[in-house]
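Q: Now give one record:
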Amino acid sequence: MRRELEELEKIIDEAQGNTGASLVIKNVSIFHLTTGEMSRGDIAVCGDRIAGVGETYGGEREIDGSGLTAVPGFIDAHVHVESSMITPFEFERCVLPRGVTTAVCDPHELSNVAGTKAIDFFLDSARRMCMDLRVQISSCVPATPLETAGAELSAADVCRYAAEPLSSGLAELMNVPGVLSKVPEVLEKAAAFKGRIDGHCPMLVGKALNAYLAAGVRNCHECSTLEEAQEKLRKGMQILIREGSVARNLDTLLPLITVGNAPFLGFCTDDRNPLDIAATGHLDYMIAHAIESGADPLAVYRIASYSTAQHFGLRDRGLIAPGYKADIVLLSDWRKCRIAHVLKNGRIVDDALFASRGLPPDPSAFLNSIQLQKVTADCFKVFSKKAETPVIGIVELSLTTEHLELELPFDGREKKCAPELDVAKIAVLERYGKNGGIGLGFVKGFGMKSGAIASSVGHDSHNICVVGTSDEDMALAVNALIDSQGGFAVVNRGKVVDVMPLPLGGLLSDHDFETVEKELLRIHEAVKVTGCPLETPFLQLAFLPLPVIPFLRITDRGVVDVAGFDFIEV
């Protein structure tokens, strides 16, 4: 208690100017998200808090804020760090300089591989990091009973984290049927978190949406139409507007961004890789694009910070105001969100700050996660009794798929793909050594003329998924990933063209984010030899095994009709 009193006395003295502040940002424009006004003055920082705003201050260290505008640090309302393919320490080094001072993450990708070890790893990382990483507790491992994951988290496993101070609640509750049918295991998790529950309910409407919300779910990042978002907003749901590497909903949901709606909105990236962050940005891109598209800047900056802070109960951040965390972004152009400096907890974000972190937690527990035995071309033969086939139709830059019915080449016994119709074969292989399951199907939209691509990133159970026009090339691509213990592989006409290893759980690189960016550029270039024109081919492939998003999916157990939540015959 004595230390707390001393800190209070210190900040009161510095706020009154009785003593010099530890840091002062001089003569800066301050965007007041309370009133929408801009004013010029000083910002006095005492330790990790803002002591004073708007008056004239002196300090031990001063930053010239002339020509700059101060806004609160940004908060990513929902992100899977694993989708960046880098460790939490590298993730913050990638996004903290872009103004993301807080991120609300769900570690369910790595949790599906390694269970509670993954949650503990993220919590341990969060305790050592400079940025605030709020670790939501993964609710659905596996996401559904229609797939095989590397681990299973019971209600008891999940509920023991309910009081974890570095968490803001239960991560996205994807098992909507489990909620609506009152499955005891699902309800036990919901009850333990008492309304601190992140949602995941694409296209849910009407009374079913009412019931889902009544169970304590408070937000959703899966709105793909304006009408869907408006209904959820009317019913009190916080809408997290997403702009990821595949799912990009910002333009569709721009009309929602008003000053009146701002308290009930947030920005999130969900799944965004270093290549896209380097090319266009992170939340800084969303802010700039929204303002350029005509959204009210006051609404945009509130959504990027204060609204999300309030939603997650983080009452100590989101404003440039006395007593709030000194999470400050200094902008050289506030309309284009051009960042000059970032302060986290009153410290300038630079190489020295990152060097002060100490060592990251040991990730070796996530090595050697692929237990799949080598495969042959015969593993990918599709035998059927009919030519008409349910085909997954991908929609580029969207997570939803189409349920197509097509006639494919068929000799009365074996069914084959049709590259001339842009129909390739797809397979998902159980990789944890549990049952050896292989789900086989067909997909339209990859544009492949030859070859195969494979990935050990396959949301959310992360079995190996492969798409191709040749059984032999598909087998070669899968075997390349077995050898590399995960990652991405490109094969064409019997030759391994390139492999990008992701040895940590088959999801994460052990390299820095700059190296991962270069590797992604290289592997995307390699994919072009197959004829595939997609901007993000591996991410597009990675979401096809996710049987909680409409309409047609595939897991290691077969092709799934999401509407019926069951398997269908190929």
About this structure: The first strand starts at residue 23 and ends at 31. Residues 134 and 165 are 9 Å apart (CA to CA). The two ends are 67 Å apart (CA to CA).
